[in-house]
Amino acid sequence: MPLIKPALDPLSVAPQSKTSYPEPYRSRVMPREKRPLGEPLGLKKIGINRTTLPPGKESSMRHWHTQEEEFIYVLEGEVVLRTDRGEQVLTAGSCAGFAAGARDGHQLINRSDKPAVYLEVSNRDGEDYVYYSDPDVDMMATPQGMKRRDGSPIGPRINREEP
Fold first, then answer.
1. Model pLDDT for residues 130-150, shown as the tens digit of each residue
2. Left, alpha or beta for 150 (phi > 0: left; psi -120 to 50: alpha)?
3. pTM score, whole prediction
4. Considering the domain boundaries, does residue 1 fall inside one?
């Protein structure tokens, strides 16, 4: 029997595989598959993605948010959580959270030989700034679009696919 709102089968949501990262960052995260779950359920204040990260790929560049809080829950496989404090392995059933304004850059990396699946959950805030922590990543996301650290533009705002 098919589920009806307020329930849904996450696999019934069409997967998306996109990013607004320019190269050389684009190839580090792509391909990856995100199924946005909040919008089909009518949720406006939080974003929820069911993300599949293939072996050898990164979830994003290491970053932190000024206004958005993020929560990650691993469903299948394993990922390496990389933060300013180092690395640790997250396996199915583990989770991590990142408070708004905490300048602890984070990202997930799949160093295994199998896809990893996890939920990403966050509040949505149109005034959020995203700062990238690695010195070699010369970009930041602002409400006005992607910019270099010196404020010069580099393209459109990163998709809000990251909750």
1. 999 888 888 888 888 888 888
2. alpha
3. 0.88
4. no
